Amino acid sequence: MSPFAKTLEIRTSPHFLSGYSVDTIMFNVVLALLPAAGFAVYAFGLAGLLTLATAVISCVVTEHLICRLTNRASTVGDWSVTITTRSSGRSPVQRRM
């Protein structure tokens, strides 16, 4: 097979074909992250819980305010900000070890 015979296939995202909305997929990811968040609270105690709660609340409020300031519809309801929070919310607690 010559190198010029290769083709690039461009396809749609999987959720377009499955019929699931972005909201549903993001919510399922949040549910999948709950055991990790629960273990972080178990391992680090109240500090872990407070870090996660502070990160989630501040990220949700910040995203909502930025959407309001830029005259866009709020994207808080699609759960994506919560996923971003989960990855950033655990790191300050883990650094204390």
Model description:
The chain has helices spanning 14-18, 22-44, 46-69, 80-89, 91-95. With 97 residues, it is mostly helical. The protein has one domain (19-95). Helix 2 (22-44) runs antiparallel to helix 3 (46-69). Mean pLDDT is 77; it is low at 89-97.
Task: Give the gist of this structure.
With 97 residues, this protein is mainly α.
Relevant terms:
disordered C terminus; 5 helices; 0% strand; 97 residues; mainly alpha
Number of domains: 1
Helix/strand structural class: mainly alpha
Average the pLDDT over all residues and give the rounded result.
77
Query: Count the strands?
Result: 0
> Helices and strands, in N-to-C order?
HHHHH
Low-confidence stretches: 89-97
What is the overall shape?
A: extended
Q: Helix count? A: 5
Question: Secondary structure elements and their pairing?
Answer:
Blueprint (H helix, E strand, L loop, with lengths): L13 H5 L3 H23 L1 H24 L10 H10 L1 H5 L2
Helix pairs in contact: 2-3, 2-4, 3-4
